[in-house]
Design brief:
two-stranded antiparallel ribbon; 10 strands; 35% helix; binds NADP nicotinamide-adenine-dinucleotide phosphate
Length: 335
């Protein structure tokens, strides 16, 4: 099944999505992610990003937390040298501010460090990774609950706005924000967020958040569109790749389960970001155009039981207490 209709080329990828920031180039409708639960060799990430560019991906997602900014930047430079793209400008690169830097005075230095890692002059999109602040310190994972501190949404967003004004980020946005977090942010923002990157797939459809973001002009990007990489460590299995409903639809359409999930996500008007470091699967993932799900398929998918995998508590070790922050302020689970 995995070879179903593999004809991926850059030309097969549909139009890009305009973002509300006038300085930003439109966001390509599909992207490649680079997060892994266990460390991956520098060279393996670089090769995977090069393979992604080769099969047609023009949108690359990283974060200082992932440790993949340097190999991703090297892959982009190599792609230009090899003529896979003419210049860095052809690519849309997103990175994210980690929770330990979620403090107004640390954001610009953190972005400059990110750009140094990437060997780039600017990011296409800079995101607040989580609505969570942790005491300033080098990146650690998991974190101690006693290191969580209140998230100064106004101060942090002002510094993000400054990053955009300086031209170091062409657009700014957030990640893992619920409608409640967005309400607070929009109340203080001069530049509204262009994007909210959240967990989204047929097993966690985020209907309420998508409706809210559509109304406010915030574009939604989907992480874990294939159900993710067992980020919670529960080992419970993958609700997308192991879905019988999706498997049935895939069989009927001559597609893979991954392609059905990515096609459904694309049809929701959401930009997906999928991680694969395997060239065959990269080709399979980008090959979701030129066909559609039927109304019956969409109805069946709408009935899939909903379950969120990634939660804010997963950022912290189980032991200890939150001394100065309520979990309800950070909670990102919202039906
Ligand atoms: N903002 C945030 O807080 C946040 C959180 C999580 C993720 N993200 C971003 O979103 C990206 C994607 O999310 P994710 O990594 O959680 O999960 P995902 O993309 O849903 O799933 C990735 C997993 O699926 C496998 N896979 C990829 N294509 C496949 C296919 N066609 N068939 C079967 N298996 C396939 C990958 O393995 P192989 O590599 O072996 O193919 C990998 O184990 C991340 O890499 C990261 O950039 C952001």
């Amino acid at each position: 099944m995995a070879s179903a209709g593999r004809t991926a080329t850059a030309a097969a990828v549909p139009e890009d999505v305009p973002l509300r920031s006038s300085a930003a180039r439109p966001m390509p409708a599909v992207g490649m992610g680079t997060a892994s639960p266990t460390p991956v060799a520098h060279e393996a990430t670089k090769e995977a990003v090069l393979a992604a560019i080769e099969v047609g991906f023009r949108h690359l997602d990283t974060a200082c937390m992932y440790g993949t900014e340097r190999p991703l930047g090297e892959a982009v430079a190599e792609a230009v040298r090899r003529g896979l793209v003419q210049s860095r400008e052809e690519l849309f690169v997103t990175s994210k501010l980690w929770c330990t830097q979620n403090h107004p005075d640390l954001e610009l230095p953190s972005l400059r460090e990110t750009l140094k890692n990437l060997q780039m002059e600017y990011l296409d999109l800079y995101l607040i990774h989580w609505p969570v602040s942790i005491k300033p310190m080098p990146i650690t994972f998991p974190n101690k609950k006693e290191d969580a501190v209140p998230f100064d949404v106004e101060g942090v967003w002002r510094a993000m706005e400054e990053c955009q004004r300086l031209g170091l980020a062409k657009a700014i946005g957030v990640s893992n924000f619920t409608t409640r977090h967005l309400d607070k942010l929009l109340a203080v923002a001069t530049i509204p967020p262009a994007v909210n990157q959240v967990e989204l797939n047929p097993a966690w459809q985020q209907r309420k958040l998508r409706a809210y973001c559509a109304e406010k002009g915030i574009h939604v990007a989907a992480y874990s569109p294939l159900g993710g990489q067992n980020w919670s460590g529960s080992g419970e299995g993958n609700a997308v790749l192991e879905s019988e409903v999706l498997a049935e639809i895939a069989k009927a359409r001559g597609k893979t389960v991954a392609q059905v999930s990515l096609r459904w996500t694309h049809e929701q008007g959401v930009t997906w970001i999928v991680k694969s470091y395997n060239k065959e699967r990269l080709e399979e993932n980008i090959d979701i155009f030129g066909w559609e799900l039927t109304d019956e398929d969409r109805h069946k998918i709408s009935q899939i039981p909903q379950k969120k995998c990634v939660t804010a508590t997963a950022l912290f070790s189980p032991e200890g207490e939150f001394p100065s922050v309520g979990l309800s302020d950070m909670d990102i689970v919202e039906e």
